[in-house]
Amino acid sequence: MTPTTPVQDLATQWSFSRKLYPIYFELAREFAIDMKPCAELEAGVETPGKDTVEQANRWLDHMDEAIQVHQLRQFLQTSSLVSQEGLLTLLQHFLAKQNKSDSVRDKIDFLLVQYFSQISPAGLDDAQVDLPYVAQAMEPVLGPVELKPPVWLNALDRVLDAARKCKNLDELLHGGVLEQGRKAKGLAGELFYLPVALTAFTRFGYLMRRAFFRLMLGDLNLILDGLSELEDGGIDTIDCRRAQFSAQEPVVRLRMICQSWKVMFQAEYSSGSPLRMLVDLRASVEHALGRGKAAPADAKASPSGPGKPAAAASKPAPPVKPAPAVKPAPAVKPAPSAKPAASAPAASNAGAPVVKAAAAAATTKPAAKPVVSPANKANKPAATKADAPEFEVSSNSGWDPDSAPQAQKKK
């Protein structure tokens, strides 16, 4: 049912293992995964025996279990070490697995979209991305695909239509559109691995990504325009408690954070706390301009800077310090990173560290990330493990929906 069959001969298995090892080694270092280096692969033997190949395969299997979906996403979004050929090798590796868990399915789903994005030409229009076009582009991965999609795949087009009708990020994240996409993938079961289904889900993920980024960039630009309007009106602080900022948040700081978010969200696509904060920040700015709904009753305030008019009401409220971020519980397999990982949707302060990180990135030079090899991970302190995003179609850092990089596709 899968487009590839498990690799059998030892020479091919060894070739795959040697290609994957540098990628997995860097993943282990990036996320402090407690895994010793593979002595067999470190030795770089050209013609190994059966036992050596099997040892290498076991090491890769252990790494596959240790690497979480969100870690793979984040690494590929931000690392320049994985080439187009590396993505293809990863895809072939996971597609060849006999037992495919939900985690393996989600990794394949992400890698398909990532690979298609890598090979898509600049200026590609949404209307061009039909099933035959995607099938031709993905032939190196899926082989020739018989384009007779079953009726149940029509649900993906309905979800795409709903996404295109969304007017802002709030509608996309919380209007049930993403949930429909997750449901379609989950209900597919083993049929997900039909070549035509993999082609359809690649197209779906790519087009959903483009819809997301257009809405996200639209929201950020509206926020920045609103902040400029507030500054022109002499308002230098607004109440942003609904977005987990303070009751007297400086407009200048909000502007810096939004600029840094433009970079951060180009590498993250999920329905997690950071995006919820972006949606709430837009609502706060619109309310300060007198165009939006009032904040919830327990978060109402209308602070203003010294000598400045109040943004939301006639009486200024005393400053309110932002609520501290909730300290997450420790996890068995830590996944620390210099870049914030999106968590599951929440209305708590779980996203507060992201705000601080974004603000710091806008004003200071980040500290160098320590180099840690897989061999000494046991000496590292445990860190919190971020929840994997429920639905994500991610892009390379700096991806522009209307000017995707990379190679020209065959006609």
Q: Please mark out the parts with pLDDT under 50 across 5 or more consecutive residues, or reply none.
A: 1-7, 267-271, 297-411
Q: Helical segment tally? A: 15
Rg measurement, Å: 23 Å
**Overall pLDDT:** 74
Question: What sequence of helices (H) and strands (E) makes up the elements?
Answer: HHHHHHHHHHHHEEHHH
- What's the total number of strands? 2
Strand % is: under 5%
Terminal-residue CA separation: 28 Å
Instruction: Characterize the biggest β-sheet.
Output: 2 strands, antiparallel
Structural class, please? Answer: mainly alpha
Helical proportion, percent range: 40-55%
Indicate the overall shape: globular
Biggest sheet strand line-up: 1-2
Characterization of the model:
The protein is an all-alpha fold and 411 residues long. The protein has a domain at 213-326 and 337-377. It has helices at 10-30, 39-43, 50-66, 69-78, 84-95, 102-119, 131-137, 139-142, 154-165, 169-174, 177-188, 195-232, 251-264, 273-288, 352-363, and strands at residues 237-238, 249-250. Strands 1-2 form a two-stranded antiparallel sheet. Helix 12 (195-232) packs antiparallel against helix 13 and helix 12 (195-232) packs parallel to helix 14 (273-288). It is globular, with a radius of gyration of 23 Å. It starts with 9 loop residues before the first helix and ends in a 48-residue tail after the last helix.
